[in-house]
Amino acid sequence: MSDGPNQTEIVDVARTADPSRGSFATNFGFIMAAVGSAVGLGNIWKFPYITGEYGGGAFVLVYLGCIAVVGMPLMYAELIIGRRGGSDILGAMRNLAPPGSAAGRLLSYLTGGMAVASGFLILSFYSVVAGWALHFVAVSLGVMPDATLGADGTFKAVSGSKSLSTIWHTVFMILTMTVVAGGIHRGIERLCKILMPVLMLMLVVLLCYVGYTGGLGQSMTFLFEPDFSKLTTAAVLEALGHAFFTLSLGMGAMVTYGSYLKSEQHVIRDGVAIAFLDTLIALMAGAVLFAIVFSAGLEPEAGPGLLFITLPKLFVEMPFGVIVSTGFFLLVVFAAWSSAVSLLEVVVAYFVDEWKFPRTHATWIFGGLVWALGIASACSGDVFDFLDNVTTRYMLPLGGLAIAIFAGWFLSEKDQVSGFVGYGKIGKVLEFLWLVTIRYITPFLIVVVILSKTGALDGVLKETPPEQAEPAVESVESGESGESGESGESGESGESGESGELAD
Ligand code: TRP
User: Fold this and answer.
1) Band of the pLDDT at 155, cuts 50, 70, 90?
2) CATH value at residue 65
3) Is the CB of residue 42 below 6 angstroms from any atom belonging to ligand 1?
4) Nearest 5°: CA angle at 294, between 290 and 297?
5) For 442-496, what is each residue's pLDDT tens digit?
6) CA of 42 to the centre of ligand 1 (A)
7) Taking the CA of residue 17 as centre, how many other CA atoms within 13 Å lie in the half-sphere pointing to its CB?
8) What distance in angstroms lies between residue 502's CA and the mean position of ligand 1's atoms?
9) Domain span at residue 463?
């Protein structure tokens, strides 16, 4: 709480006691790493398909609102907890809990424990999906024998094959562990400083390409012209949930990265930059995807199969299709790689800071365990769906709720405001707005999301007419072949986890 008697005596120095923990060398490097964490499958795969399902413009507008009202305040909260706490998620919260407050300590342990578990579980299935993208890169390049299978064939071949899924998952985990083992500066910062600008550049090139081949205008209209008659309660809840996932909030990823910051001087500005870039990249990816979909005369509601089934089908027919396809799936791999690194870093930081493991040991031991668990997801769609649901529906929102409550009600005032210092009057206004939001609004909205996912609010919230979920899958297919069920959840996915992965 902020009313401790010795407010002025609290050291105004963040706890960066241990320089051997490593740190980001530059502010730019930190921003790239955080953007790398935020930009992932959520931006390139999920954002476009949920925007397609929920009707475009109006959904995008609500999503932007959620980023501003829930995402940004929580982003600041996580960064400042990490920066001031100077440790892994659990340690940072424990360091900042009011002395003698049993509730504060309890909250630190519960939140920290759940956050580390979330990182562990999410990475295990995230890596499987990233592995599929790797497979598509290989197929696009013609390296793999099944390049002739066609898009749905390729997707079924990899997602339905235990051995292929496992092999690519293994490759992806090795990539991820190699970076994390390299440390904050030499591993993570270096990777993201290269990967993120390259990713942006690739997106710009793809945008120019679709600007040239057509469909971009239609795509822009779809994304930016709101039609509020299409807006439903379900859409709003989805937007709110996704704001979380896409900014990597709710499991201490930003706390952990914040703890490697050298100063809190720019936390506000950085947080805004991270949210802005994440949103920009999602919108750009959406613009590219829908341009391709529209120019082929298809409808935007393909559902989860949009990225892995609809698009590759279209790539085949496009001019320079091989290059575009390879470039596109490389983009997906890059985005997923830097996100996976942040998921593993949360786990590794915990074992390094709390249990004094050497970084390399922690990386290979716990990364290895994640890999082993991931094999279960690679081989069983049920395991995959279960882990996906538990983490994105419940653990992340709960984690976000706990972090918001901790930041709003348990942090000392000094810690709370430390990121606003030096911004004069504007800083004071922002500080006030942030405090009100993080104390009341953010927790309230998160509780609504969690309750709605458990079905507890079914009578209260007017539910969406179910029509938009179902024909959605068919509509793209009808423009294409007759074989049904190849995209997403309604398909014959049962045993292979090719369904609504990660969807929350
Ligand atoms: N933000 C990433 C995406 O959009 C996923 C991700 C990475 C994540 N790290 C996270 C989500 C931590 C929640 C918490 O794909």
Assistant:
1) confident
2) 1.20.1740.10
3) yes
4) 150
5) 999 999 989 988 888 877 765 554 444 433 333 333 333 333 333 333 333 333 3
6) 7
7) 9
8) 10
9) 7-496
